[in-house]
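Cross-check.
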Amino acid sequence: MEDKTNITFEAALARLEEIVRALESGTAPLDESLSMFEEGVALVKICTDRLDSAEQKIKTLFKNKDGSYEEQPFEPVE
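Predicted model, tokenized:
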């Protein structure tokens, strides 16, 4: 498997979708399916890491009573 550390989030997600379709079709031999599964696990980790990193960069601006703005960390709704 090639090094995918520099792959974009969008490219990783697109490749992951391809892998899922291929695995769901059930036409690949076992060795190839296993290889695709391992690649998919690595891509999920990349996507999760990129999303976590992006979430940490998001800030929310709140307007104070005096008209100034204050930056606060983004708190996702769960």
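The beta strands are 59-63, 69-73. The CA atoms of residues 53 and 72 lie 16 Å apart. Passed to J.P. for a second look.
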